[in-house]
Fold each of these.
Amino acid sequence: MNDCLFCQIAAKKIPSQIVFEDDQIMAFKDINPVAPVHILVIPKKHIPSLAETSLEDQKLLGLIQVQAARIAAQEGIAESGYRLVANTRGDGGQTVGHLHYHLLGGRPMQWPPG
Ligand code: 5GP
Ligand code: ZN
């Protein structure tokens, strides 16, 4: 087992509030929510960021988006709308080195982001 935080959450070595799980993906509540709904959707496989993905990951990445839309419906934000974002590397604001998508909703989002 590596010391990656989200690998440990995926392996349930570190507890989280799981809202969805299958054999490839886990979704859990962000520990420091910035919106009424703030869920992190991750592949169970360790990928450091979107920048390290390859064509071999295309099914997995597609699955994450499809499941994120289902989770949004499950969480009651499908009609009002939401944002799905993958902060990537330094300028993207990424702080955890395991690919994750923020599913944000329950309030209007601003554009452009900060
Ligand atoms: P990033 O800044 O890399 O885009 O997003 C990392 C996110 O992970 C942050 O929103 C942060 O609040 C969340 N986070 C960091 N540590 C933990 C943790 O131990 N558990 C959970 N559930 N979320 C975490
Ligand atoms: Zn990891």
Amino acid sequence: MPLPVVQYGEPVLRKKGARIESVTPEVTRLIADMFETMRLERGVGLAAQQVGHALQLTVIDVRGVKDRPSQLWISGQPADAEAFMPLVLINPQVTPAGPPVKGPEGCLSFPEIYADIERPGEVDVTAWNDRGEPFTFRAGGLLARAVQHEVDHLNGILFIDRMDSTTRRELKPEIEALQAATRAAKASR
Ligand code: ZN
């Protein structure tokens, strides 16, 4: 069942996600609903906070993006990033593994707001999969960017926090308008 995606101004987006201690049937159902929601909204990633749950859980699928390549290494060997999708990350830990690069980002919780964000170009990731089994990989390109954007969400960090000050200043009116609209919609419910 697709879930409503919360927008900037909803307090849950600023909450650090609780660690998931076991993959219960409720977690499994939430993962399925998050995939359905992400595909409907045409996103490459979705964090639990974006559907109202402050949990260490995100789903990612970069297969739809053809113009921005992803790289993957497993146990130090290059691997097929597309075949690695879709990806469920539970309790993920991310470590930078390359120099910072700038690239375009958007966010389903910030409709029509886009900006170039600087992040490490490669990252090492440790997480649990959807069966609660630990796994590790190194990501580059779009996959590295998507992982970092989503793992930020799990810690209450948003891409506007990563914008440089000029971009942030330029986008301030749109960001504030979105926040006000979200709060007004909430107040009228
Ligand atoms: Zn986002």
